[in-house]
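Example with several molecule types.
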Amino acid sequence: MSITLLRLGHRIFRDQRITTHCALTARAFGCEKMIYSGEKDRETEKSVKDVVKRWGGNFEIYYEKNWKNFLKNSSQKKILLTMYGVNLPNVIDKIRNESDIVLIVGSEKVPSEIYGMIDYQVAVTLQPHSEVAALAVFLDWYFKGKEMDIKFSNAKMEIIPMEKGKNIKLS
Amino acid sequence: MSITLLRLGHRIFRDQRITTHCALTARAFGCEKMIYSGEKDRETEKSVKDVVKRWGGNFEIYYEKNWKNFLKNSSQKKILLTMYGVNLPNVIDKIRNESDIVLIVGSEKVPSEIYGMIDYQVAVTLQPHSEVAALAVFLDWYFKGKEMDIKFSNAKMEIIPMEKGKNIKLS
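Resulting structure tokens for the full complex:
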């Protein structure tokens, strides 16, 4: 089972925080890596890698200038998350049969060529909101909530859950 | 049943997009309104109100300078979403018994006074990711996925779900 997130059209100035949220959400909810296109952004890459170093696991982030070639050469099933797609509850059972997936999220506008390159397009509600929210809820449904208990290997920091306040175990 | 989102510490320059994503996610996933503190931001308010005008429903956004007074005077149950809390699967059944809720999400750092003012703190995974993701997944679990089919009244735009491409019904 392998899920890659493909983030299209990253712009350093405008998208840095949202792209970082996408990457960290992908990691926390069970993706293996994020590939992003648009503007190469060493700062975002570094902040994601810093989280992986501290919080563990093997999540990776790569830049890919030519996302079309990447999709053409990939044998994974391609799933575009967009409010225009089939609503998640109506398609998730079928998608759970696919174990090797590229999940695609855009920035402001998704290039229309994408529609010829995908296997599914999935809406998480049919309302405008956030690619971060769509990504998290998609993965939560895909994994049926099991991602809530992922243990990340080699974590230097680990949270001890508390009813109030903070408790972090360092190792 | 009434759920309010309280977004703390908004900064116009740094948080505008994330705060907007929080508001739109709150709307799409069944909250009634978002109250935000920090810097008053007419542009964010306008963009959220524009979405409501076009896509329907009664979602509201308000600025509240004094969030502590707001929480002190509120009779709603106060739930802080934070990675340090009790993991969602271990507490959601209890929280579903509460029908009148303020959900609280911070920006970079949450002021420590908050811990004396809340009823629950809930983690959505015990990993660092995104307040937008945490909010969406919390609401999805709270509503057991029923929010996926919310119909918004007086929508001028409505999506006709498609397996490929876009179809928007205008009225």
